[in-house]
Amino acid sequence: MYAVIGAGPMGLASARNLDRYGIDFVGFELHDDVGGLWDIDNPHSTVYESAHLISSKRMTEFAEFPMPQAMATYPTHRQLKQYFRDYARHFDLYRRYEFATRVVSIERHADGWKILTEHAGNRQFRIFDGVLIANGTLHQPNWPTLPGRFDGELLHASAYREPGRFTGKRVLIVGCGNSACDIAVDAVHHAKSVDLSVRRGYHFLPKFIGGRPTDTLGGKFRLPRALKQRLDARLIQMVVGKPSDYGLPDPDYRMYESHPVINSLVLHHLGHGDITPRRDVADMTGHTVTFNDGEQADYDLVLMATGYKLHYPFIDAQHLNWHTGDAPSLYLNVFHPEHDNLFLMGMIEATGLGWEGRNLQAQLVALYIRQLAADQPGARELQQRKRKHASDRIDGGYAYLPLARMAYYVHKDSYLKQVRRHIAALEKQAAG
């Protein structure tokens, strides 16, 4: 019996594939329904009322469960909540989960794992043959230390839900990732003023080019990495210009070396003066913020859109091969070098990977569990490989920035090539 922790997209994909390959399991979900962060009614969700996918539906959906044709190209969080509920019903996954159940701890027990859970105040220990951890990567706020003291309202993006809280306020948003830009656009229509504090340059992509979702363009011809970086950067510059045209710093790194901002409106509002660009925060005193270029302004609310940290509070970090750095060292970001029955699901980011890429990850894990139990050579080969190559970075030659979120970022094509190669080897032996 295996345990799956989480019923968001990755947890559901893990459950689906275990079920598909006949591996008995039980799922644990802290909320009372599926969907993870895409269920805004989940107290642990970090989405906000205006949240949509930043990748298009066809590049994001599960291949065996396409999103409805009538659904928008970039669906809302409420459409996605329904999509995951429909997915769970279609594959009969609800009956496999214990909802409103918190995983308190996971400890090694002989060759398996002892899990302590809590439901309605009652705690229970159970022993499992293995564990698939799929509790998500976007729920533990990253709170960087701010210089000085701010006497106004201080809020992290994880706690933001609707723009009414900005009404009549002087707002500073710290950060310039996708959430920061979405929230800045929200605030424009309610706040007295909106400023955006940006520490470094970003590449900005519109959601549509020529009426088509930007992430569906190209791909017919595989270009050398350096050429693709130059051509795509030139195309985007022709379409939207440079960030410095809007008062933002230009990036000092190449396209795709950090996750781009995909937003069609933030540059529009910057260009119209609805949002004022600011540099990094140097000091705070009372309601006054000083930036590192010497400029100052007063604010009522500072919203920290400063990202998230990986967080697995129920298990010792050493069990995850996480000794230093911003992420555990795992083969393909999922396989522990020594433990053959512990898998960290969904600890992966990549441009264009979508949920199908994560589904393939889950398929590989389920196949590995089954074929290792059958002592198949393909599983043994993967077992040896994960022990030798847990620290390998699948970056496709891209010089990713040394940021916390980029610590588990991979190059999609390089990653999927390895995953599919292992799946093919395991399936061939299963068929034989």
From the structure above, extract its key features:
432 residues, alpha/beta, five-stranded parallel β-sheet, 23 strands, globular
Briefly characterize the structure:
27% of the residues lie in helices and 21% in strands. By secondary structure, it is α/β, with parallel strands linked by helices.
Please write out the topology:
Layout lengths: L1 E4 L3 H12 L4 E4 L28 H4 L16 H14 L6 E2 L2 E9 L2 E8 L2 E7 L1 E4 L6 E2 L7 E2 L2 E4 L13 E5 L3 H11 L4 E5 L6 E2 L2 E2 L2 E2 L11 H16 L20 E2 L3 H6 L4 E3 L2 E6 L1 E4 L4 E3 L2 E4 L3 E2 L32 E3 L9 H20 L3 H12 L23 H20 L1
Parallel strand pairs: 1-2, 1-7, 2-3, 7-23, 9-18, 10-21, 11-12, 11-21, 12-17, 13-16
Antiparallel strand pairs: 4-5, 5-6, 8-22, 14-15, 18-19, 19-20
Helix pairs in contact: 1-7, 7-8, 7-9, 8-9
